[in-house]
From TrEMBL:
Its EC number is 1.8.3.2. GO terms for biological process: protein folding. Gene3D superfamilies: ERV/ALR sulfhydryl oxidase domain, Glutaredoxin. This is Sulfhydryl oxidase. One of its GO terms (cellular component) is extracellular space. Its cofactor is FAD. It comes from the Eukaryota. It is found in: Secreted.
């Protein structure tokens, strides 16, 4: 442990000259490491590296885009292709290791034979298949092969749909919307100036939950950075200061430039949660998916912390007053602490169904529901037959009576919101425990929190290890310098 800290210290010393001019509380550390703009995510290939890159790739599938740099349609398509590529390629990828997304410029003479091998007849042309089949392989349109042409990928949305259908799951769609919901939630908090002496602690608790268990890697990373710099954004003695308004404004500007899920997170791009009308689904759907995905990722010992953090977050930061009050009542009805992951996951599932049942009646009376996506009791029987012990029936008051197999419901929730929303959530936690515990302690103490569950602490350490150590060390040094500075 001492040797690792010493290496981090040496790394800090080498970067100190550059860091000295950067402001604490901004994206300074992250920018110093990553640079201001992300590079292209799709990997550029040519005849010299095509076989070696693809044969060495651990990805299950590869997409190769054949294009020409002079082609206007190819230039217009690039932002769409890059949007999808960032999901799978690079350090910020939400789903690293699943699909290797590459491109080949057929306008370069060096690639003429390579493009001929794959019968490139138009631009852009996309091929899909196992990486090993591309390496030292070829493709003919009428030839039976594991390499196939993507016939409907001309926009990011359509390419994602094609990938999801091919892989038989909706991972990408749901993670997009979870990122969107996370970003939107924090925009609302900042725009409505909802952080104060009362709400400060609940926000810290929810951030700890996101750092440890958000299904998106870049949201975990962004949440960790906000948590690391929280005292700089909103000091604990802020509300006793006569400069409160200026400090709040500075914190808002800093965190908005930070972007909690990174600047590449989709905005206004609901896919899984898109309604048939602009005013339906969207944010509320995305927020529910986020909460469910977190609920099945926590460890048994974290269930009460996750329950309390979720209840406090909704109570303090969900802007719909009636919805907030209903959720608070459901939270207040719990008298015994949760002990197992299933306890919290099943409570949240029950709460969601109660909300849906209430809204079904209201939307039917007021005709405000989404006709293509009506509220329903979840999961429907066709999606999880084993979840039902007997056919549903209606009570005299019109409400649904269902005899649930709760063990099967929990298995379904884990599969649907857990395995289908995989994003490197458990990045070698056990192997990294010793290496990350010190950093976790520093992040925790910097935000004045008394106790954090083990999983959350480890999540904080791991999600921020690339930049958090430098940030923590830098902040510690700055605080020491402030303490040594003579008071006027």
């Amino acid at each position: 442990m001492a040797s690792i800290l010493y290496l981090l210290f040496l790394l800090f010393l080498f970067s100190f000259e550059a860091a000295e001019s950067l402001q604490v509380g901004s994206r300074s550390i992250l920018r110093a490491i990553s640079g201001p703009d992300p590079p292209d995510a799709a990997v550029d290939l040519n005849i010299t590296n095509f076989d070696s890159v693809l044969s060495d790739s651990p990805a299950s599938f590869a997409i190769v885009e054949f294009f020409a740099h002079w082609c206007p349609a190819c230039r217009n398509y690039k932002p769409h292709y890059e949007k999808v590529a960032r999901l799978f390629n690079g350090r910020e990828a939400v789903h690293p290791g699943i699909i290797l997304m590459t491109r080949v410029d057929c306008a370069l003479k060096i690639n003429t034979k390579l493009c001929d091998k794959f019968s490139v007849g138009h631009y852009p042309m996309l091929l899909w298949g196992p990486p090993s089949k591309f390496a030292s392989g070829s493709w003919e349109p009428k030839q039976k092969s594991e390499i196939i042409a993507i016939d409907d990928g001309r926009t990011a949305d359509r390419l994602l749909n094609w990938i999801n259908k091919k892989m038989g799951r909706h991972i990408v769609r749901a993670v997009y919307d979870v990122e969107e919901a996370t970003s939107s939630a924090f925009d609302i908090i900042l725009d409505h100036k909802m952080i104060n002496s009362v709400t400060r602690a609940p926000l810290i608790g929810f951030l700890q939950l996101l750092v440890a268990h958000h299904p998106s890697r870049r949201c975990r990373k962004g949440s960790a950075e906000v948590l690391v710099n929280f005292d700089e954004f909103w000091p604990s003695d802020l509300w006793a200061s006569n400069k409160q308004e200026a400090i709040v404004s500075r914190g808002k500007d800093a965190i908005q430039s930070l972007r909690i899920c990174g600047k590449e997170a989709p905005r206004g791009y609901w896919i899984f949660c898109r309604g048939s009308k602009n005013e339906t689904r969207g944010f509320s759907c995305g927020l529910w998916v986020l909460l469910h995905s977190v609920s099945v990722r926590i460890e048994d010992g974290e269930s009460q912390f996750a329950f309390r953090s979720t209840c406090d977050f909704i109570h303090n930061f969900f802007i719909c007053q009636e919805c907030r009050q209903h959720f608070h009542e459901m939270c207040s009805s719990i008298t015994s602490p949760f002990k197992k992951t299933a306890d919290f996951a099943l409570w949240l599932w029950t709460a969601h169904n109660q909300v849906n049942e209430r809204l079904m009646k209201e939307e039917a009376d007021l005709k405000t529901g989404d006709p293509k996506f009506p509220k329903m009791i979840w999961p429907p029987k066709q999606l999880c037959p084993s979840c039902y012990l007997s056919p549903p029936s209606r009570r005299k008051d019109g409400s649904m009576s269902i005899d649930w197999n709760r063990d099967e419901v929990f298995k379904f929730l884990v599969g649907y919101y857990g395995k289908m929303l995989v994003s490197s959530n458990k990045d070698s936690f056990l192997e990294e425990e010793k290496r990350g515990s010190s950093l976790a302690d520093e992040v925790v103490t910097s935000t004045n929190v008394v106790a954090v569950p083990l999983g959350a602490a480890l999540g904080i350490a791991l999600a921020s290890c690339a930049f958090g150590a430098l940030a923590c060390f830098w902040r510690s040094r700055q605080k020491n310098r402030k303490q040594r500075r003579p008071r006027s």
